[in-house]
Specification:
Distance between the termini: 85 Å
CATH superfamily of the largest domain: PAS domain
Number of strands: 11
Largest sheet: 6 strands, antiparallel
Shape: flat
CATH architecture of the largest domain: 2-Layer Sandwich
Structural class: alpha+beta
Mean pLDDT: 81
Strand content: 5-15%
Length: 590
């Protein structure tokens, strides 16, 4: 270092040093910058083409799988159709569709093909034979009726949109084919196929790419988001569908467009490919946000620029002496720094040096150790805060339960039942945590209800009941003041809503009721029925479950009720100890 200082301080040598430094900088960095710029431009075009090719490959792969699936389905139907039409040619009629022979054929087909869910051979008068399992789905029944009437009226094959069954967690499709008797319709073959494997394969395509299928009217018939898939969303005005209308069969198109996300427009890259199948006019679409599609390009640009900058720094260092001795420690330090930025705070630098690089390495190790300790303390503090928060909620819950002599421990029990239901429904951990908080706080509104009502030993009057019904709304209003509980509010406010719309406080019905509220409502009702109240003796667990099950579709959704049944059957639910509950009852003055 003293030699370098002396060179800089020497004016005569300083001029040579400056010229040499400038010359080496020009020679070493300008070609690097130029080649880097060309490399970025070249690789950017390559990556953009690769993204386009990837889109097209995804479209074609999904379209090919759907086409092969449909062709397999059509081949089964056509084979059976030809056999029945041959019998028509020999003079048979209704007997073809009602004979034991046809029944045996259908059963053989059903047994031989895993994808077949249900087969029905129907004569034109509505009589026929069937095989398989006919699911009790309203949409499926409608598709079967439409297939029957469609095929009697026209000779075209009927293909329904794919349907999702939440009960069986399957995706199925209904296909109908006319069986002709001369120029007339003799009957109809209706097959219901399981296409869950096709749907699952489509959903596996990730990496920021969203794959979906549209029909020729713009209706969304397959989508990885089950909610959108089930709602039959129409995308007739979407740029994807507008581009799809321009395509011919077997044509493919990749294009940029903008899509509204919230209040902003997001740049997207989309591709559309028509499924090469004559019986359907479906198109496979792939769309990817531009920032995701260009992620590799951005990474490549950043990496290239980073390396250019590092190379310039290296060129400056190499203009001095000890280039190799300095570059190796710097590279080690850079690698560990990058590892630190990825969150690996346990990394340490092993550099044996007595110069500034060695000091820097020691300071880096000391800094890493302090950061690691600090992060660990932050994690412990966060967990302590969480436990403190939960403890405060549980204390508040216990205080509220204590106002009502008949509900001691009610909120804790409801929470435990709600958690059992949520776990049996395989809900994500985030949802289970939210349900846990909502269960503890579901009756927090009772803090605003008079003790004379809560502690009344007999039945409530109509006026008293009206005041009691305010507690979900009061609870939500109280907890609305806490930002951390914003997502918990629906479970608190709506846990007394019923599917038929006769609940309170807002009279919601059906899908309007949040899932958290549906789960807590079942748990709340179960605990109320299995503990002693002024107006009833406690039900047994079996009686309470049977009673709750009778309310499916009216008050409660099937999913939470069936999950509670499963938890009971697994031995996770026992009859509450009434003596333990009574032990802590007391009356306070209002």
């Amino acid at each position: 270092m003293s030699k370098i200082k002396s060179i800089i301080q020497d004016q005569k040598k300083g001029k040579i040093f400056n010229l040499l430094l400038i010359f080496m900088l020009i020679v070493g960095t300008i070609p690097l910058v130029i080649s880097g710029y060309n490399l970025i431009s070249y690789n950017k075009n390559i990556l953009a083409r690769d993204q386009q090719v990837l889109h097209q490959q995804i479209c074609k792969a999904v379209a090919s799988e759907i086409r092969l699936f449909l062709q397999s389905c059509f081949n089964m139907i056509i084979t059976l159709q030809k056999g029945l039409e041959l019998n028509f040619a020999e003079g048979a009629s209704e007997e073809i569709f009602t004979s034991a022979k046809t029944q045996n054929i259908l059963e053989s087909l059903f047994d031989a093909h895993d994808r077949i869910i249900y087969i029905n051979a129907i004569y034109r008068n509505g009589k026929g034979v069937q095989s398989g399992i006919l699911m009790n789905e309203e949409e499926l029944q409608g598709d079967i009726q439409r297939a029957f009437h469609h095929c009697l009226e026209v000779s075209e094959t009927f293909v329904s949109r794919p349907r999702y069954s939440p009960k069986s967690n399957q995706v199925y499709i209904t296909i109908g084919k006319r069986v002709s008797s001369g120029d007339e319709a003799g009957g109809v073959l209706i097959f219901v196929y399981n296409m869950t494997d096709v749907y699952v394969n489509m959903r596996r395509i990730d990496s920021g790419n969203t794959v979906f299928v549209l029909d020729d009217t713009g209706s969304l018939i397959l989508h990885p988001n089950i909610q959108l898939f089930s709602k039959e969303v129409n995308m007739a005005q979407h740029p994807i569908f507008q581009e799809m209308k321009k395509l011919r069969t077997h044509a493919i198109s990749t294009f940029p467009f903008e899509e509204k996300s919230g209040e902003t427009m997001v740049g997207m890259v989309g591709s559309v490919y028509m499924i090469p199948e004559n019986h359907v006019n479906w198109g496979v679409a792939v769309q990817t946000p531009e920032d995701v599609a260009n992620l590799d390009i951005v990474k490549m640009q950043l990496q290239t620029i980073t390396w250019i900058v590092l190379s310039i720094i290296l060129a400056l260092i190499m203009s001095f002496i000890f280039s190799q001795r300095l570059s190796i420690p710097i590279q080690k330090l850079t690698a560990k720094t990058l590892s630190i930025t990825d969150g690996n705070f346990s990394e340490r630098v092993d550099i044996q040096s007595r110069n500034e690089i060695g000091i820097l390495a020691d300071n880096f190790n000391l800094m890493s150790e302090k950061i690691e300790n600090y992060i660990e303390r932050l994690k412990k503090a966060a967990e302590q805060n969480r436990q403190l928060f939960i403890g405060a909620i549980r204390t508040l819950t216990a205080a509220i339960d204590a106002k009502d002599p008949y509900t001691r421990g009610h909120s804790e029990r409801v929470t435990q039942y709600a958690l059992l239901i949520a776990r049996e429904m395989n809900l994500p951990a985030k949802d289970i945590e939210r349900i846990y908080l909502a269960g503890l706080l579901h009756d927090v509104g009772k803090i605003g209800i008079s003790d004379s009502i809560l502690q009344k030993p007999g039945l409530l009057t109509e006026e008293e009941y009206s005041l009691m019904k305010l507690h979900p709304q009061l609870g939500a209003d109280i907890m609305n003041q806490i930002p951390q509980l914003k997502e918990v509010l629906p479970g608190i406010r709506h846990h007394h809503e019923w599917l038929d719309g006769s609940g309170y406080p807002d009279g919601l019905c059906g899908d309007q009721i949040p899932q958290d509220a549906l789960i807590i409502g079942v748990a709340d009702c179960f605990d109320a029925m299995t503990t002693e109240r002024p107006y009833q003796k406690p039900f047994t667990v079996e009686a309470a479950l049977s009673r709750i099950k009778s309310f499916i579709g009216k008050r409660f959704a099937a999913g939470p009720v069936e999950a509670l049944w499963r938890a009971y059957e697994k031995g996770k639910i026992a009859q509450p100890d009434q003596t333990e509950i009574k032990k802590y009852r007391y009356i306070t003055s209002n």
